[in-house]
Amino acid sequence: MSKNSVFAALLLGSVFAAGGAMAADPEVYKIGGIFAMTGASPHYGKVMSGGAQLAVDEINAKGGIDGTKLQLVVEDHKSGSAQAAVAGMNRLIDVEGVKAVLPSFSTVTLATMPIGDQKKILMLNGGGVSAQTVGTSPYMFNIRSMASDLAGGIAHRAADQGAKKLAQIAIKSEFGDATIAATTKAWEGMGLKMVAAEQFQADAANIDTQVAKLRASQPDAIANWPTTPQAGLAVKRLRELGMKQPVYCMEWTAEDSKVAGKHAEGVEVVTDYFAATDENPWSKRFAEAYKAKFGDMPDFYAANYYEGVYVIAELIRRSKAKGGDYYTGERLVQALWENPTFDSVYGKTLTFRKNGVAQKPVAVFRLENGEPKFVKFTSAE
Amino acid sequence: MDLLIQLTLNGLFNGAHFALLAMGFALIFGTTGVVHFAYGPVYAVGAYIVWALVALAGLPFWAAVILGVAATAAFGVASYLFIYRPFEIGGSPPFVVLVASLGLFIVLKNLIGIVFGTDVKTVDSVAYDVHFVGDAFFTTVQVGQVLAALLVGCGIALFLRASRYGKAIRAMADNREMATVIGIDTKRLSILVFALGSAVSAVAGSLVLLRDGLNPNMGFGAVFVAFVAVIVGGVGSLRGAVIAGFLLAFVQSLGMWQIPTEWQNTIVFVVLFGFLLARPSGIVRRA
Amino acid sequence: MEYLAHVLVMVCLYGILATSFNLLIGFGGIFALAHATFYASGAYAAGILATKLGIGFPFTMLAGMVVTAAIGLLVAFPAMRVGSHYLVVITLALQAITIDVLMNSKPLTGGPDGIPGIPPVSLFGTPLNNPVAFLPLAAVMAALCCAVAWRLGASPFGRSLRAMRENEAAAQAVGKNLVRMKLVVFALSAGLASVAGSLVAHYIAFVNPESFTIEETILILAMVILGGMGNLWGSLAGAAILVLLPEGLKFVHVPGDIADMVRQVIYGVVLIVILRLRPEGLFPETVFRPPTGAVLPTVPANGPVSAVVRAEGAPGEVVVSAKALAKSFGGIKAVKDLTIDLRRGEIVGLIGPNGAGKTTAFNLLSGFLRPTGGSILYHGRDLTKLKPHEVVTAGLARSFQDLKLFTKLSVVENILVSLPRQPGDNLLDVYLRPGLVRRAERENVARALEIASFVGLLAKADEVAANLSYAEEKLLVIARLLATGADVLLLDEPLSGLDTGTVERICGVLRDLARANKAICIIEHNLEVIRGVCDEIVFIDEGRVLTKGPPDTLMRDRELAERYFG
Question: Residue C50 has what pLDDT?
């Protein structure tokens, strides 16, 4: 091979490489979702994928991002299997070529995070609440308030209403553990007494024993930490056993209202709770569209993943506007930090803090006729 | 003290539920030897059918239960005829049948999710009361669980002892080959016990619908409890299965009196472990 | 590419899990459903050691193997006491306890959060932190684990395991120490499973309790059953199918949010269909044929007496002397006062009506039952406290009325497995001194064939025992008994149900054995036979010796004739 031809080859190569770097738009922007589509709690997968899909459809109906459509690719983690999640994550990156992934469940997020970090894939979690997911990777973001943040808000709310002795019930899960620890710290920090903390296995046949022990501890108020739908079941049991104390939750969905039935009345939820209100037209529009598509009102999980897709779409749009090889995880993250504030379906805006957790308005809601009624905004910390 | 009374009551009510599940499973497993893992989702299907009849078709609860129980029996029979029977004819070893049952389990569980949706199913049209003994509370549904366990238990016991079919079932449970030799139609009896056992599980399922609500994954815990109760009770003994069902519930409940509840499974299984090691052939030993 | 590599890594890991599980259930016949516990133990050992103590890969794995093998030994204990369904429930219980412990021991295991941030395996300074880089390691480890499992399966120890699976009592009666075997196979199976655990921990860099639930054990069980029990290639195939099938189904496009549930339904249906087509699993049990071919031509067609080791000592010398043996079961005295002597070169016939206590007497003499009174002296050594396999090793072996052959083993394997003092029964020798094991095996095969020839089964040497005629089965029982090398042989109804030709043949064998200086005791009902072969008759009824003496004298006894011979 002559020197010339080597030179030509190099030139040609660099032209191709530059062409790659210029990165024409992909045919479609694929966004990955790793959800609980089967297994012990497939309902999470249904609402999360539903919310995300709705957002994708809405954005596409308006022409996508400068004419390029979005596509949601869902992988099943079988309600918490780390291995299924890792397989899904690899498939999303390798086969589907996604640059942003929406994981769910803390353990799944923890298992897939190293891959996202290594492959520079933006990860936006709207489900898991474990503090372990915070601050470990520059590519990891949370769009849901952390349990530890909400716990403080609830402790203050209960104390404001005159409770001196608090009892907690939770699932034996990363969520339950994190919440119990954070609440105990906040509660005892105010010099008040924690009288019980009962936990049950996620697949427990019943929770009667735990509720009986809770009742025997004679609390002034009950912190009810199980996730959907056991939150509703716990409320039903507490009330059936004649306990009239105020009950506080940080997670409550329509499922819980269904399970608890009339017993849900008066339960308070302190969270970045999604509620469609007249003051917030986007929330109303979203709720109506969701109901039209799936037949149910959306819960905050649906809202989080719906919002997550909008955030990612916005990042792609911003990144593209700056040109170059814009469609990479690195560029998406860069675009996020350039302006960490986004419109929120919860009302007004959400802002990512330095640790990657989005700050949303946290409010106290009271359940009336199974529907949450806004009481007041409160501080998360 | 109040806690102790409450825990005892809880043990009684959950024991009734476990006993019902165990009776159904014992009938099937004890007679045919099929480790009917899909008993769990069949039970779930029954409860979902009752739900659909009440919530969608607007039937009164009692009518829905009757229809639901019948439908579940049919479901159980179908699972025998289409899944297990061919393996039985082929003389497959029990563990192959178990894995086939596992396949059926996966199919049914996911079909429930596809057909009925993955959300929790409850009925709110059936009202029930709360009662109290001293400071301890219980609901009418829980009383219903105990009554159901009693009625079903007595009914089955009577059937097994007094009727021609019942005696044949007992003979088959004792010795399948001998039963065939003396001219008992084991296929027909298998159909019968699959129908009966599935029907019993649907009774338990209907009450759980009122008590806790339904989800597609409810079958796993149910078949696990039923299987454990039947083995602990002594294979082939209905009485043993019932006693073991109550025993499990009482340990699960009373065992937590002074122990943190997150160790519930451990306590139950440590007791079970010790029990089986001390008495390796179950509560009711067979000659 | 990475995705494909990931899927293949999973096939390797599940291949390790399924083959190691197959050793337990397919070879040992031990249905201990706690395999995910071993898997978890390996994974957590790696996670804890790597994150808390900063220990690196091969050492985390080795430590995990040791810890997990110890847990395997613990699980083995219930397996000694209970079998079948009970063991299934107990081990499922253990599995549930494991999850509780992992969930609740937060300082050590991280609780439900698990342990994130486990450092990757580093080879030659390169971190294997992606599927493509990790795959070669996973493949090599899987190959190693399979080789270890295969070596075990093909070794004399594997043969003993399969014999134990076929019939525990018979395995004991040919001198196998079941306790030791179960401990060894549990420790090995658990240790191998923990390798998969260490690998998955370093590979995914995260462990949590939910990855090791009962469902995981059930999945591994399904792989073993699907592939075929007792076939290690089958386990690999089962693992590959059950890993690849759901991944493959992901490429089947199903619209809507029910897609994954539809795929699971298809998965379940495929599982059922495969089993319907191949009810014994995809592959039949592996036949580990002993190398008979090389030896066969050198064995004479109808072996002479020399094939049997002549017992040392003078003819007529008392070898076994049982005095005042008693055994009661919950108040019922099955044997009250049994005194019996067995002498070299003599055949004693134990006779008596049904329920007289004849078989109980054999059970007492052979250690299967512990007497509640009396003594058994063998060459002056007390046997009453010994376990059955120790009694056999001492020199006293027995057969069973219901034969208890190892039906899935071939004729020559039935005999081989009964030969005493095989180096191949010791796993250390199997792995560390393969030459010794191979030489011993060749000698043993020759010996087994000589014994087969002696009883006239040489032509059937490679036939599976299940295919033998009844007469051949009875001959095999004797061959197996001979193979133990015992000089005292107790035969429980060796002649019942046979045609006269075969009876004559077996009687000839018995006489040959007596001539070779063995002490023999038989339970028999056929008086003609007894008269023909026995030197002495011991008549027992209601658990005690009524009378004894030479056959001719005894049969003239009028009272006896009325009570027994009618």
Answer: 93
In a shared domain, residues C39 and C184? yes
Which of C85, C97, C258 has the CB atom closest to B265's CB atom?
C97
What's the CA gap between A52 and A38, in Å, rounded?
Answer: 17
Asked if residue C289 belongs to a domain, the reply is: no
- Omega of the bond prior to B41 within 30 degrees of 0, cis? no
Domains of chain A in start order, with CATH, are 28-145+279-347 (3.40.50.2300), 147-271+363-378 (3.40.50.2300)
Q: Which residue spans within B97-208 are E strands per DSSP?
A: 130-133, 136-139
* Rounded distance between C-alpha atoms, residue C29 and residue A71, angstroms: 51
Cβ(A125)–Cβ(A139) below 8 Å: no
**How much is the ipTM here?**
0.90
CB contact under 8 A, C89 and B103: no
B280 touches chain C (CB under 8 A): yes
Chain C residues with CB under 8 Å of B227 CB are: 89
* Partner C contacted by B163 (CB < 8 A): no
* pLDDT tens readout for residues A111-140: 999 899 989 999 999 877 677 778 788 999
Q: pLDDT tens across A92-107, in order?
A: 998 999 999 999 988 8
Q: Between C125 and A133, where is the model more confident?
A: C125
Beta strands in B59-196 (DSSP E): 130-133, 136-139
Instruction: Give domain status of residue C511, yes or no.
Output: yes
pLDDT band at C286 (very low <50, low <70, confident <90, very high): confident
The answer to whether residue C240 is domain-embedded is: no
Task: Assess B163–A contact: CB distance below 8 Å, yes or no.
Answer: no
| From A39, A216, A242, residue closest to B130, measured CB to CB | A242
Task: Give the mean model confidence (pLDDT) for residues C19-40.
Answer: 92
C-alpha B105/C-alpha B115 separation (Å) is 15
Q: Could you give the CA distance from residue C15 to residue C239 in angstroms, rounded to a whole number? A: 5
Q: Is residue B228 within 8 angstroms of chain C, CB to CB?
A: yes
Q: Is the pLDDT of residue C506 over 90?
A: no
Task: Judge: A83–C211 Cβ closer than 8 Å, yes or no.
Answer: yes
Q: Do A362 and A154 touch, CB atoms closer than 8 A?
A: no
Give partners of C (≥3 CB pairs < 8 A).
A, B
- Domain end residue (candidates: C166, C191, C212): C212
Of A38, A208, A296, the CB nearest to B10: A208
Q: Are residues C536 and C390 in the same domain?
A: yes
AA identity, residue C76: A
Output phi, psi for C95, to 5 deg: -60, -45
Distances (CA, A) of C564 to A295, C347, C356: 86, 21, 11
Task: Please give the residue range of the domain that contains residue C500.
Answer: 320-565
Give the pLDDT of residue A17: 43
For residue C519, being part of any structural domain is answered with: yes
Q: Per-domain residue ranges for chain B?
A: 11-123+134-219
Q: How confident is the model at residue A13 (pLDDT cuts 50, 70, 90)?
A: very low
- Residue B182 to residue B191: CA distance in whole angstroms: 19
Query: C164 pLDDT exceeds 60?
Result: yes
Q: Given this model, what pLDDT does residue C309 score?
A: 66
Which of the given ranges, B2-16, B68-82, C65-79, C328-342, has the highest pLDDT on average? B68-82
Per the CB < 8 Å rule, is A172 touching C112? yes
The type of residue at C337 is D
User: B134 touching A, CB under 8 A?
Assistant: no
In this complex, the residue of C90, C268, C281 whose CB is nearest that of residue B106 is: C268
Final residue in a domain of this structure, among C212, C238, C273? C212
Residue C306: which pLDDT band, with cuts at 50, 70 and 90?
A: low
Alpha-carbon C340 to chain mean position: 33
Distance in Å, alpha carbon of A104 to nearest chain C alpha carbon: 14
Count of domains for chain C = 2
Q: What is the CATH number of the domain that holds C442?
A: 3.40.50.300
CA atoms within 13 A on the CB side of A15: 6
